[in-house]
Design brief:
heterodimer; A: 174 residues; alpha+beta; Alpha-Beta Plaits; 2 domains; 4-stranded antiparallel sheet; 47% helix; B: 463 residues; mainly alpha; 17 helices; globular; membrane (chain B); transmembrane helix (chain B); Quinol:cytochrome C oxidoreductase (chain B); transmembrane (chain B)
């Protein structure tokens, strides 16, 4: 199979070394593709200069959709399509609709958030997640550098990563 | 860590005193207005309209009752007759005095809650072995200094306000031809005395006992916390934790019973099994808002540099989450009674929704305590920035005052409750006194516990 993506991987086993390595590598002008860690490393997001995730906005919008859907559904069903007298209440009365509205808001918000996260993280069904190194799910931190996005030669990048405290420097093709 | 001390400056004291004087002036003005203005629409200006509303609402209430022909209506009739037939040992106080009493009781309950939540927050942090909150634990603890004063105020004023605020204290309700429901409930208040006696022993003993226990544990916890500053080590922390566990067990029970005694028994025919939780939720979220607000104000005055955006974020989450919790409890109480539609239960909400004087408070309550905190504190940034905390906390603090106002006033004042200078003035007087006590005690000791075993964890708190 023809491979068209080439990554240089630095393998680290200590998060403090990793944090300083990220700083060093960035200072030497190398663009980091991504860092994979087996657990959340505090301060890594800031070091990598990540923007805040926009997932909360997705959650809010899906929640709003749930609220609207639930209210419209109930008011239309019980108020117009098939009015029924329940407990002497008005056909379309708000308080009894609140629990369903709440549930649908939470449900759609949660499902929408999980779905969005999976799609953006390439975890969709039949999608093939790009696993740089299996050990990043166990006990090693993996820093990946996309060769196509850097002007430096592979040798230079390998030496920069090697000098930053990495235990191993590997090449991974996809 | 170096010590940091809060100095309660003369300038701050002066501001508080001025606020207190403004409060007194407003209170006196409100009292005079309600003396001369007749029945309670003085602060409104639209006399006739409000009066009309009250009349309409009264007839609405009556017709709702008549339609249902439920027991509540019959009960009220029986009660009224019993009143007339009674020995007339007590006449209702004048309108303005009654309004002062009602007001006094609202503030008693409100500030008692604030004080006890100060201790509750500390106890929860110790029992959970939490590290994040160490920086502002003493802000929370300082609120609890109001406990003894709240106890004395409540105990003394109870004897003053009882016939006006607590309907069940009237002796004429008991005995042959009396109120059946209240006769059934009488032992809860009067045991072991005779029903309708002038001394509701069980009730009074509970009140004294709760405040005594709270105060005792507060003194013990405070002693250990301050001894830690001098001696260091983890022994004091362990002891504080032990007392905190004892306190939480006592508080879990006493806060509920206190809520029934001091708030729910104002509407003695009505009951809600959720009421203890409802009052607790209101107290708790209000306490959190006050703790957060004082912390932020201290920070902006150059104190508490060890508290940063991460700590604010966590307390912001607490405020956000418990605002929703309060709403959940409010709604659970409302929905069940709304759906079951039993007259003796719905009368409580009818009084609050259909009487013109309270309708706006009913909706304002939901807007201030749910809609605004929910929308304003939703994002991460909102919880991390002091400016927004400073906007949301006062909203919640005012909102929960209205919550207690709505729990107590309609039961006391019936159709005539009002909101005006008197209410604002009394709230300011109480608030200033409360802050004086809290800030004075805050200035007496270092602002944060330098030997707390979790201080280091708090410094590195990062979310």
């Amino acid at each position: 199979m023809e491979s068209n993506k080439h990554f240089v991987l630095g393998i680290y086993d200590d998060e403090d070394v990793l944090l300083s390595a990220v700083r060093k590598v960035k200072e030497s002008g190398v663009k980091i593709h991504e860092v994979y860690t087996p657990f959340p490393v505090h301060g890594l997001d800031e070091e990598l200069g990540y923007k805040r995730t926009r997932l909360p906005i997705v959650a809010f919008l899906f929640g709003l959709l749930g609220t609207t859907l639930a209210l419209t559904m109930q008011i239309w069903m019980l108020g117009y399509d098939w009015p029924m007298i329940i407990g002497g209440k008005n056909f379309a009365s708000l308080p009894p609709f609140i629990p369903v509205t709440f549930e649908l808001t939470v449900l759609l918000s949660a499902l929408g958030m999980v779905g969005t996260f999976m799609i953006t993280s390439n975890l969709k069904p039949y999608g093939k997640p790009r696993l740089m190194d299996k050990r990043c799910t166990d006990d090693k931190h993996v820093m990946a550098i996309d060769l196509a996005k850097n002007d430096l030669s592979q040798e230079d990048i390998r030496s920069i990563i090697g000098n930053s405290g990495a235990q191993e420097v590997n090449l991974k093709d996809f | 860590m170096t010590e940091e001390r809060f100095s309660f400056t003369a300038g701050a004291k002066k501001t508080l005193v001025i606020l207190g004087i403004v409060g007194v002036v407003l209170f006196v003005l409100g009292t005079v207005l309600s003396m001369s203005g007749g029945h309670g629409h003085e602060a409104h200006g639209e006399h006739e309209e409000t009066a009309l509303n009250a009349q309409e609402s009264a007839s609405l209430l009556a017709s709702a009752d008549a339609q249902d022909e439920g027991s509540a209506h019959a009960e009220e009739h029986g009660e009224a007759e019993a009143h007339e037939a009674g020995h007339g040992e007590h006449h209702e106080s004048a309108y303005w005095l009654k309004r002062i009493y009602s007001n006094l009781w609202v503030n008693n309950v409100y500030f008692t809650g604030l004080a006890i939540i100060g201790l509750f927050f500390v106890a929860v942090q110790y029992v959970a072995q939490a590290g994040w909150s160490v920086g502002f634990l003493r802000v929370s603890l300082s609120l609890a200094n109001w406990i003894p004063i709240a106890g004395i105020l409540m105990f003394v004023s109870w004897w003053l306000v009882r016939y006006d605020v607590f309907h069940w204290t009237h002796a004429s309700l008991y005995g042959p031809g009396g109120d059946e429901i209240l006769q059934g409930k009488a032992p809860l208040w009067f045991w072991p005395m005779e029903s309708g006696s002038a001394l509701p022993l069980f009730y009074i003993v509970r009140m004294v006992l709760f405040f005594a226990l709270w105060y005792m544990l507060f003194v013990w916890i405070k002693k250990e916390i301050f001894a830690e500053d001098i001696n260091g080590g983890v022994d004091h922390w362990r002891k504080t934790r032990k007392y905190s566990v004892i306190f939480l067990v006592i508080f879990g029970f006493s806060s509920s019973v206190g809520a029934w005694d001091w708030v729910m028994s104002i509407d003695p025919h009505w009951f809600s099994t959720l009421f203890g939780w409802y009052v607790f939720a209101s107290w708790w979220i209000n306490g959190l808002a006050v703790i957060a607000l004082i912390t932020v104000v201290l920070k902006q005055n150059g104190y508490l540099s060890i508290v940063n955006a991460n700590h604010l974020h966590d307390i912001g989450k607490f405020i956000f989450g418990f605002s929703i919790f309060w709403t959940y409890v409010w709604f659970a109480q409302f929905l069940l009674q709304y759906y079951a539609n039993m007259p003796e239960e719905t009368v409580y909400f009818l009084q609050r929704l259909e009487v013109g004087n309270y309708t706006w408070v009913f909706y304002l309550n939901l807007i201030l305590n749910f809609v605004l905190p929910f929308l304003l504190l939703m994002t991460r940034d909102a919880k991390r920035h002091m400016s927004l905390i400073k906007v949301v906390c006062p909203i919640i603090i005012a909102g929960h005052w209205f919550d207690f106002y709505l729990m107590i006033t309609p039961g006391v004042m019936k159709l005539e409750g009002g909101f005006g200078f008197m209410e604002i003035g009394m709230l300011m007087i109480f608030g200033v006194a409360f802050l004086f006590v809290a800030l004075t005690s805050l200035a007496k000791a270092p602002l944060y516990p330098k030997n707390h075993p979790f201080l280091e964890e708090s410094l590195h708190h990062h979310i």
